[in-house]
TrEMBL record:
Histidine kinase domain span: 262-505
SUPFAM superfamilies the record matches: ATPase domain of HSP90 chaperone/DNA topoisomerase II/histidine kinase, Homodimeric domain of signal transducing histidine kinase
SMART domains the record matches: HAMP, HATPase_c, HisKA
Keyword Coiled coil: yes
InterPro entries: HAMP_dom, HATPase_C_sf, HATPase_dom, His_kinase_dom, HisK_dim/P_dom, HisK_dim/P_sf, Sensor_HK_Regulatory, Sig_transdc_His_kin-like_C
Entry protein name: histidine kinase
């Protein structure tokens, strides 16, 4: 049998690996968010400290803002930073776009001034005039030039957060490389961990395999984890109970076989004597009936008329002799049935002793064809059809003949005399095998009984009970003979349609 693809080892290993992968993935997501936040804060902090000179430039006034603005733009500009200077009336004085990643700056409006400086809170301590906004993928820093109460103008610095992506991607690549290495290390190190966890189960499986191979006295080791120990204890207790039940069943079967064999041997002699006595008694009854009839006629003709009634009563009447003969004949028939039963029981006992077969290679189709006339004589009106394909088989011819005879008799017995049809089919099975099928259109067998019809003394259906024949040993003998040939016999049946007995050799 092909082992299933899903195993405990694979399940545990895959779950462990998925746990590691999930942990690494969660850590990676947290690390990316943390790195991005850290880089943004670092950039903001850098901008804040770069702005300190501008924020506390004492010489900045509304009059000289146009002169100082170019200096501020030059001092604060960099490749990725965009700078703009506005006067106190929010008019653009000058701006410097980043060479690396220029972006359009949002014009300064009274609404922005109100929004940016609407709160006194700031995370940068003494730079209370500074306000930072993160919006639409850009970081913008706003600060008044001069004092907040009387600003000479306003300063706007902005850059895209995209400039942080190379650092984030570099950190992610480094983390991915480390994660792959860690995952490989975890996958390799988990192999012995999983094997160690499954070691008790492997020992149980190895012992169970030896038990299945025939070491029925062996028991599962009670070692390992608590679960495997409990499992081993329960299985061992079940095996002990099963072994004891099998032992008792074998002893009971052996006692029954010995009894049947002994009883059959003991019954042979009295049955033979009983059969002989009944035959002798039948012959004597027939002779007595003839002699009595002649003597009665002579006595009645010679006797006076007044003595004839007395002579009539003295002689046994013919009707009584007929009834007596019927009783003896019935006893003889029942004796014959008992002889057949004893013969079948003795044969089963012989088959149980694993006797040696007298094998020879025969053509099964030709073998059946030779006995076809005998089989047709057994029919009481049923039609018989033979479909024979030549094929060779190694068997004991005499025993195989008994199997064929029993199957055909069984089919004839349970089919209607007027409408019954029996089909005997022989076909090849491989190079040196054969399949024999005997089909009928009888009442059929209940599917629940198909597995038991080869048991001894088992009768399958009510239809068969109403038409009893033998003792229910014919199919048992067939099964024992086929088993001795290392073949198979089985039945297929449909109620109201018929039954097919199949023999594979």
């Amino acid at each position: 049998m092909t082992p299933p693809a899903h195993t405990i080892r694979r399940s545990l290993y895959s779950r462990y690996v998925w746990v590691v992968v999930s942990i690494l993935l969660i850590i990676g997501i947290i690390q990316v968010q943390t790195l991005r936040s850290t880089l943004i804060i670092a950039g903001e902090t850098t901008l804040v400290f770069n702005l300190r000179d501008a924020l506390y430039h004492e010489k900045i006034t509304p009059e000289n803002l146009h002169i100082i603005a170019p200096q501020l733009l030059h001092m604060l500009s960099s490749r990725a930073v965009n700078v703009a200077v506005y006067d106190s009336n929010l008019r653009l004085v000058g701006k410097q776009m980043a060479a690396y990643d220029p972006m359009p700056l949002q014009p300064m409006t009274p609404q922005i001034v109100s929004l940016v400086w609407g709160s006194e809170d700031t995370p940068y301590g003494r730079f209370k005039n500074l306000r930072i906004m993160l919006s639409h993928g850009a970081i913008q820093v706003y600060a008044p030039l001069g004092t907040r109460a009387h600003p000479a103008g306003y300063l706007q610095i902005a850059y895209r957060d995209q400039i942080l992506y190379p650092f984030i991607w570099r950190g992610m690549a480094l983390y991915f490389t480390a994660s792959v290495l860690l995952l490989i290390f975890a996958a390799i190190s988990l192999l012995p961990v999983v094997e160690s966890a499954l070691a008790p189960l492997h020992r149980l499986l190895a012992t169970a395999s030896r038990i299945r191979s025939g070491a029925v006295e062996e028991r599962l080791p009670v070692t390992g984890t608590r679960e495997t120990e409990q499992l081993a204890v329960m299985i061992n207790e079940g095996l002990d109970q099963l072994q004891e039940a099998v032992r008792q069943e074998k002893e009971s079967t052996q006692r029954m076989k010995r009894f049947v064999s002994s009883a059959s041997h003991e019954l042979r002699t009295p049955l033979t004597s009983l059969k002989g006595f009944s035959e002798v008694l039948l012959r004597r009854l027939d002779t007595y009936r003839e002699n009595t009839s002649v003597a009665r006629e002579i006595a009645l003709n010679a006797a006076p008329r007044r003595l004839r009634p007395m002579l009539e009563e003295a002689f046994v009447r013919d009707e009584q002799l007929v009834e007596l003969r019927h009783a003896v004949a019935s006893m003889q028939n029942e004796t014959a049935r008992l002889e057949e039963l004893v013969r079948d029981l003795l044969q089963l006992a012989r088959l149980d002793e694993h006797f040696k077969l007298n094998r020879s290679v025969i053509d099964l189709a030709a073998f059946i064809s030779e006995h076809q006339a005998q089989y047709e004589i057994l029919s009481k009106g049923q039609k018989m059809f033979f479909h024979l394909t030549p094929c060779s088989v190694s068997c004991d011819p005499s025993l195989l003949q008994q199997v064929i005879y029993n199957l055909i008799m069984n089919a004839l017995h349970y089919t209607n005399v007027q409408t019954g049809e029996i089909h005997v089919t022989v076909s090849p099975r491989g190079k040196d095998g054969a399949i024999l099928e005997v089909s009928d259109n009888g009442p059929g067998i209940d599917p629940a009984h198909l597995e038991r019809i080869f048991d001894r003394f088992f009768r399958a259906s009510e239809a068969r009970e109403r038409n009893p024949g033998g003792a229910g040993l014919g199919l048992s003998i067939c099964a024992a003979i086929i088993a001795a040939h290392e073949g198979k016999i089985y039945a297929q049946s449909t109620l109201g349609v018929g039954t097919t007995m199949t023999v594979e050799l």
